Description:
By secondary structure, the chain is an alpha+beta fold. It has eleven helices and 13 strands. Helix 1 crosses helix 11. The longest helix is centred in the N-terminal third of the chain and has 17 residues. Belongs to the D-alanine--D-alanine ligase family.
Amino acid sequence: MAFKRFGKVAVLYGGNSAEREVSLKSGEAVLKGLHSAGIDAHGFDPRHQPLESLKKLGFEQVFIALHGRGGEDGSVQGLLEIMGLPHTGSGVLGSALAMDKVRTKQVWQSLGLPTAGYRVVNRDDFDSQTLPEILEALGGCVMVKPAQEGSSIGMAKVSSVDELATAVKTAFEYDAEVLLEQYIVGQEYTVAILEDRALPMIRMETPNTFYDYEAKYQSNTTQYHCPCGLEDEVESRLQAVSLKAFDAVAASGWGRVDLMINDAGDVFLLEVNTVPGMTEKSLVPMAAKAAGISFAELTLRILQTAG
């Protein structure tokens, strides 16, 4: 594959979100990959220097490896676009929509795409008296998720009103809006997307209560299955559904769609990640490898999406 000239490239990583440590690891890995491919890439941590200096420092392209708020929610994308600096991944709309788990689900519902039942609670008008009814309506077991956090930060699985009240209170520390989602019993999968193409699916398996932060980044007991074990026809169908889900929130370039399949074979879309992890434990590099794409080529192809 022929790659365009990239010039001096800034890899944005670190930042100030709750996912800073993961972002630093992603950025370091991306830098290593780009360097091995001969790209003039340099790390740039917005915590330590203003983004406005990117132009003054002569950067021509930006690889966004910032996770979470301030990097994955459209704010950095908007600033870079105002500055006239091409950047990887989704634009303002796709980044903002995908970061918001509640709006993502509402868009999917409007298009008839499958997603789990849910309720939304807000910090300003939260009434704990409604929790018993919510828990019952959602089947007695609920995933509590801050609406705009990633890496499973602030999430909890609960099955009692007391647990739900505690988990909601904790989630409110991360976000004023919290998603209460029906807990799905089944297998969790992810579909990496690169240049409008779905890569081989991965099935995640963990002894933890769910695929949480520890399972994603710290545990040695999490298992990743690629091939994922599904029949080819089923995998192709789910890849197509994932591409529709990705397009529905105006995501572009590269990313990841997470989903679950319950014991009855029903599919439930979970979320879209527009700046997925790029660490040694990350899923997109794993799927790319299964598709015959080396890590260095992957970083180049993601950089190719800058526009």
